[in-house]
Amino acid sequence: MSRAVAIFGGTFNPIHLGHLRAAEEIREAAGLDEVRFVPAALPPHKDPTTTALAPAADRLRMVELAIAGTPGFRAWSIEVERAGTSYSIDTIRALRAEVPADTRVAFMMGWDAFADVHTWKDFEAIFELCDVLVFTRPPDVHPADERALPVAARQAFRYDPAIGAFRHTSGHRLTMHQVTSFAISATDVRRRLGAGHSVRFLVPETVEAYIRHRGLYGTRPSAS
Fold it and tell me: Which of 83, 89, 66 is closest to 20 using CA atoms?
């Protein structure tokens, strides 16, 4: 049987339990064999002058620590190793070139990112190359028709009630997944760390230990 592999990209600055739970729920709902977490080396939509962005190597290491030993999860360093700005379309093309032709390739993104997909490099090609898995959190609810889509995507998709998803003209699907709501954001995690507050139960213990060991996000580096 063919495999199903999804890309879950982001800054992961740092990765937290909300990221992990969303990925697990979508992995299960979409029947994925593998979710590849892909930290962006140089995210095109983040202003480095206003965002406390940890070095790419540290963000990759935190992802590795967070998902270590988790079946179906894998850290992929492709964007950290690639020079220049990190574009999702390049990563999707790289995965397509790596896996067998009958592999189902999917791309995961949150609703906020999907709403701004028209600003992404070659965004139309993303829909042509893979399935798209958009996740939202309560209380966000989107209608089961083209009104749920950003204007930039409406012409390419039609809702198919028989499958409960949108069909692209290429044959790929776009599905909406409502995941468990966690009031956790990387911005809030960084704020708490910078203020010397606890982030226990917001990030995995191994990630918190790494942050404090490296002195990231305003913490004091540990001596060990």
Answer: 66
Query: Considering its fold, how many domains does the chain have in total?
Result: 1
Q: Residue 217 has what DSSP assignment?
A: G
CA–CA separation, 210 and 5 (whole Å): 28
Residue span of the structural domain in which 9 resides: 4-183
Task: Tell me the per-residue pLDDT of 56-97, one tens digit each, with 9 for 90 and over.
Answer: 999 999 999 999 999 999 999 999 999 789 999 999 999 999
Whole-prediction pTM:
0.93
204 within some domain = no
The length of the chain is 224
Residue 122 placed within a domain: yes
Order of strands across the sheet with 157-160?
73-75, 34-39, 4-10, 104-110, 131-136, 173-178, 165-168, 157-160
Q: How far apart are CA 124 and CA 49, in angstroms?
A: 30
**131-136 and 157-160: which strand pairing?**
unpaired
- CATH assignment at residue 70: 3.40.50.620
Query: Angle, nearest 10°, between helix axes 17-29 and 56-67?
Result: 60
Pairing of strands 73-75, 34-39: parallel
Per-residue pLDDT tens digits for 1-20: 689 999 999 999 999 999 99
Q: Is residue 35 part of a domain?
A: yes
Is residue 189 assigned to a domain?
A: no
How far is the CA of 134 from the CAs of 9, 23, 57, 67, 131, in angstroms?
Answer: 12, 11, 27, 21, 10
